[in-house]
Write a structure and sequence with these properties.
The protein has one domain: Aminopeptidase (3-Layer(aba) Sandwich), CATH 3.40.630. It has seven helices and seven strands. Strands 1-2-3-4-5-7-6 form a seven-stranded mixed β-sheet, with helices on both faces. It is globular, with a radius of gyration of 15 Å.
Length: 169
């Protein structure tokens, strides 16, 4: 049986719990003015889902241990809110979720994360994503995300090879 499943309404509280537990790694790493507790409230999570983020989860023994969202925006697919429980990290859960979500779309994939979260940047690079330069990052953040200017300053965007090929034409 595939450990990756589409998350449903009953999973929302657990998704929120995983995001907040895992995002604690950002505390003291991302700028203090970008950190808040909880990192994502239940209302914020529900708003993201209402805006079209679909979550998939990785289950171990029936227990949700990792989540990753996918969202089609205009002509691309965004990977959103990718988190694995701290005690499950380093076991391939994130990589399996990412590979699964990549199979769900033919569109170019973009991923935004905090530039200070070097472990996240390395993770995506290890899986074939390339870091966009600052000019391109700023351009695509304005097109595909709705985030405050301060978050734009502190973010990076990574792209898959479909994006790279499409933008080299």
């Amino acid at each position: 049986m595939n450990p990756i499943t589409l998350c449903g309404p009953a999973d929302i509280p657990t998704i929120c719990e995983i995001i907040n537990e895992s995002a604690s790694a950002y505390k003291g790493v991302i700028p203090a003015d970008r950190w808040h507790e909880p990192y994502m409230s239940l209302a914020e999570l529900q708003s993201e889902i209402a805006k079209g983020v679909t979550f998939y989860g990785y289950r171990e023994d029936g227990r949700l241990v990792g989540v990753m969202g996918i969202q089609d925006i205009k002509d691309v697919t965004l990977i959103r809110h990718a988190y694995v429980r701290s005690n499950t990290r380093g076991k391939g859960v994130g990589g399996q979720l990412l590979a699964y979500l990549r199979e769900l779309t033919e569109r170019p994939i973009l991923i935004g994360t905090w530039k200070a979260a070097v472990w996240a940047v390395r993770f995506y690079q290890k899986h074939g994503f390339v870091l966009l330069d600052d000019h391109e990052k700023n351009r695509v953040l304005k097109i595909y995300w709705t985030i405050p200017p301060r978050q734009v300053e502190e973010s990076v965007v990574l792209a898959d090879q479909r994006w790279v090929r499409a933008t080299q034409r």
